[in-house]
Amino acid sequence: MTKMVSELHWPSMSHAEFARRRRAVMERIGPQAVAIVPAAPQRLRNHDVHYPYRQDGDFRYLTGFPEPEAVAVLAPGRAGGEYILFCRDRDPEREIWDGRRAGQEGAQREYGADQALSIGRLDEVMPRLLDGRERVYHTLGQQSWLDQKLIGWLKSLRGQSRRGVHAPPEVISLDPVLHEMRLFKSESEIALMQQAASVSAAAHRRAMRTARPGVYEYQIAAEIHHEYERNGLTWAYGTIVGSGANACILHYVENSAVLKDGELLLIDAGGEWQGYCADITRSFPVNGRYSGPQKALYEVVLAAQLAAIEKCRVGQHWNAPHEAAVRVLTEGLVALGLLQGEVQALVEKEAYKRFYMHSTGHWLGMDVHDVGAYKIGGEWRRFEPGMVLTVEPGLYVTPAEDVDESYWNIGIRIEDDVLITAGEPRILTHEAPKQIADVEALMRSGPLPLDGGG
């Protein structure tokens, strides 16, 4: 049996890292402010069955606390403790059914809260925490129940002004502060993302060795998820396994077709490790060998991706990788006869969008489409060390009278996760093969059985 990736490396986040983040937020909002951040609610899947719980990224980033029904409050300078965590009480009966809870003692001991209180005391305590502050940092519109409570607390405080009670006059979104922090990854975060990337790359290699004519798309998805779960990961987003014409559907999720000889298979799949995501796409032949038209299009997309990655350097602006990819893709489409005209003119009028209709990447981190501004002051922001983005050009050729039939129903996307460093771009997902010779060699190395073995 092959050795699990997680047996080689088990990165995790320290309590000191969470404490450092909370201090940084409090420094940014200032001593006259208070910040309120809620946990994600549980979501019903059907009747009384919930979806698997995933914590809100902002809340997890500041607390590491894994439970629902919790609210974190940061109150700089408060004598009784600057970090207050409201959470569920211990409940032996519910814990028999639903699992263990930290309770207030665990919130302090295991998760570093200066003070932990029952979530049932939120209405009692929050007005006192708000009294005398000048600003409340809270992102409105995400959880209406908390928005309504905040409005009620402020209204109550304003009604007591004659008694010397002072309600904060400003409510400010915490997103600009927190999301700018999340955009820059620490060494600990990079280690977690590398773990997610390495296991996800192993899942793609497993898919390449499993794919063959007659296998169903969902069987390939199962092999990918098997690789995640045997290494302690979950999926970061719904797995896309699209063969033939399905590869031309950008967010194809049915995964129900049978793989056919001569088709390409596009897989967009990434795992999540301790709240941090990977995002990889590979496109390869079901029968293990690229046909002439498939190879021609693939080489164009790969050249575009390499040109885009080359732009992932300090000082380059956000859209530089996309511009580089578009140029190479357009040149390739003209060379193959799929577009006619002068390259610069075709780029300017966006003629390539017929075959390439999405952007070349997005921020990556605790969310697959991670937080962080793409523009500052109306201008594309510049890359800085610690940022992580995806680079994912593609070409999608659907049947049309003016398109050579040999290219019909070929969908290709090549996606990697790239860390901006002070020097060369670091490709976190480099363990997933993408050179044609490497992909074909791996597929020739022998198919894996569809029995979950490994």
Question: Please, could you describe this protein's structure?
Answer:
- This protein has 454 residues and is of the alpha+beta class.
- The protein is built from 13 helices and 21 strands.
- The protein has helices at residues 15-29, 57-63, 92-98, 103-109, 122-130, 144-158, 175-183, 187-210, 217-230, 292-310, 320-335, 343-348, 436-444, and strands at 33-38, 44-46, 49-50, 71-74, 83-87, 115-118, 135-137, 170-172, 234-235, 240-243, 264-269, 271-273, 276-277, 280-285, 375-376, 379-380, 388-391, 394-397, 410-413, 416-419, 426-427.
- The strands form seven sheets. It has a six-stranded mixed beta sheet, with helices on both faces. Strands 9-12-13 form a three-stranded antiparallel beta sheet. The chain has a three-stranded antiparallel beta sheet with strand order 10-11-14.
- Helix 5 (122-130) packs across helix 6, helix 8 packs antiparallel against helix 9 and helix 10 (292-310) packs antiparallel against helix 11.
- The radius of gyration is 25 Å and the shape is elongated.
List keywords for this structure.
single chain, 454 residues, alpha+beta, 6-stranded mixed beta sheet, 13 helices, 35% helix, disordered N terminus
What's this model, at a glance?
The chain has 454 residues and is an alpha+beta fold. It is 35% helix and 17% strand.
The strand line-up of the biggest sheet is 6-5-4-1-7-8
The largest sheet is: 6 strands, mixed
Q: Oligomeric state of the chains?
A: single chain
Low-pLDDT windows of residues? 1-9
Mean pLDDT: 95
Number of strands: 21
